[in-house]
Design a protein that fits this description.
- With about 150 residues, this protein is mainly α.
- It has one domain: Up-down Bundle (Four Helix Bundle (Hemerythrin (Met), subunit A)), CATH 1.20.120.
- About 80% of the residues lie in helices and about 0% in strands.
- The protein contains 6 helices and no strands.
- Helix 1 packs across helix 4 and helix 3 runs antiparallel to helix 4.
- The protein is elongated and about 60 Å long.
- The two termini are about 25 Å apart.
Length: about 150
């Protein structure tokens, strides 16, 4: 029983860490857009790299199902990430003005909080959708292969 509680706690911590990581990966400062990798069919770069070890081990039908889930969520996540970047830029613009306009800065911060919350929610929705398609053992394997997911979340 005690080991089940530990595993449940580890799973909850891992999902939280994954939500944080997904939000960080999607919302980090603008870089050249990562292309869709045609051979893998996944939205480019970091997320694909994080999931690659697990994807290689999955049966073809399950691998395709995860890819489809990623594709379904990608447009919304990209849109929210762009809104998050734009919100950060608005805050920076307000802070760089010669005269600090406190109401405008407060409004920019409020919009940024809303943007961040929406991005975090969408990221958590994606992680939940992906986790729901994996067995408990597959989720544990992913965390064993990518232990930095937990360190980044802490």
């Amino acid at each position: 029983m005690n080991s089940r509680l530990i595993l449940a706690g580890a799973l909850a911590a891992s999902l939280a860490a994954n939500a944080f990581l997904a939000g960080w990966l999607i919302g980090r400062p603008a870089a050249p857009a990562a292309p869709v990798v045609a051979s893998q069919g996944l939205p480019g770069g970091a997320l694909r790299q994080q999931l690659q070890p697990l994807l290689r081990q999955l049966p073809d039908d399950q691998r395709q199902q995860l890819r489809n889930t990623l594709r379904e969520h990608a447009p919304q996540l990209r849109q929210l990430a762009e809104a998050n970047r734009a919100g950060r830029q608005q805050v920076l613009e307000q802070l760089s003005q010669d005269t600090l306009d406190i109401p405008a800065l407060q409004a920019a911060f409020a919009r940024q909080r809303q943007n961040s919350a929406a991005l975090q929610q969408a990221s958590q929705d994606l992680i939940q959708a992906l986790a729901g398609q994996l067995s408990a053992e597959q989720r544990r394997q992913l965390l064993q292969q990518r232990p930095e997911l937990l360190r980044r979340g802490g």
